[in-house]
Amino acid sequence: MAKTLNVPLIGTRRPGSPDGAARASRRPGGPVPLALVAAGFTLAQLVLVHPGTGLGWDETVYVSQVSPHAPAAFFSAPRARGVSLLVAPVASWSSSTTLLRVYLALLSGLGLFVALRVWRGLFPVRVLALAGALFATLWVTLFYGPQAMPNYWVAIGALVCVGCFLRAHAGGRALAALWGTGLGAALMAWMRPPDAVWVTLPLLVLAVAAPRWRRARPLLALLGGLLAGAAEWIVEAYVSYGGLGQRLADGSRIQGGLGWNIAVGDQVRGLGGRVLCRPCTGGMPNPVVTAWWFVLPLIAALGLVIAVRARRPAPTLLLLACATTAGIPYLFMIGYAAPRFLLPLYALVAIPVADALVHLVTVPGRRWRPVLVTLVAAGLAGHLAVQFAVLETTVRRAADSHHGWAVTAAELHRLGVRPPCALAGRQSVPIAFYAGCSSVATSGHNANATAAGITRSARHMPVAVITAPGGEPPGYARAWAHRRAGDVDIRVSPGVGSRTP
Questions:
Q1: pTM surpassing 0.90?
Q2: How many CB atoms lie within 10 A of CB 240?
């Protein structure tokens, strides 16, 4: 039988009174429903997201750090190396995108199962299964689950960290809760250190505010996990970026300057399948596509009301607090949007939302219960239809752009630009990865070379510059041979065709 949890939070329950979480923990249920949700999530990724689809721009940066297929791309200040290490077991010896996608889909399904299982005893299994299903069927979760990107893993780390922190903060002696707190925090910091700090702010406040006998071990586990996960990022800041402060400043500059900036509208524009909304212009998506986003906080608030009335507010309140701090930088402090930024928020808020929905359809003794069941079922069916429609469009767009990069890379090989080689210009980072070349730039966020250095390199290896059709090439490449390849212009350095591949 599961251990009863007594999770105090700012005096929310009377001493000795039965707690809702304790009642739930007496009937925790088995892990089978959670395993089925996780398995369904993995299967949906493999079926709907097309494992053969090539790597995206950011993915090529992360994968190139460990792949023998191409030289490592420039690693800008905001990035962390967690994703590169995550994909290393496959990418370090295989260039197969399909194999990498299958590996990540399986791993993401396992991660979801572990993250949900942490919450057994704090919420009924049926609530956790529904929460997992709600999170797993968002188009953005399905799209990024099998990708070499960090945000999904921040979301998984957040669920593990918050759930284990609640258990550890309850005063129990289970080492598993302390280890889970630290490992969840480490996973977030390993992937995106600033995000880990934002997610754990409420946990840090709660740990510091707790009585001394209750705070020490959870606080140490939390801080230890954050430092362990971010250690490499901090060391690299001093080795390669001029210090931690400089790396943070560079990261802010690359992201357009972090500060007060309401990006709520930008995030709404991204809900229609725009994986990166920068600059975020154009009209809003159809209200049918965005309705769920505006309903989400209302249902989450209902979940909190239900938890307070049931005298078990602590888990729900902490989930919503961490979800709020996770969303603050991407809703109010950045000048552009990407739907994946809010994955940790969606993962944390999914449990209170599921709790509210389960309560609506199961509460006994109400004559209008059939109406509620019908409305909830119809709403969920419509929501799934919208999510899968957006996913299909997003996957198709991504596949088209990745195919275009592969076609350009094949044309470069036909022109004699083969490894070792270097590319500069428009979309040179992903195209260089596809072609097996280095990517070089003299300006912008990925600046890592000078015009003189590129000219010197062109004397002993193939170098190409890519521009938009009719675009003006840099001065050092104006006299280079010009070719049109699909929707780009390619200029190759002198003597490329005569060099031996």
A1: yes
A2: 10
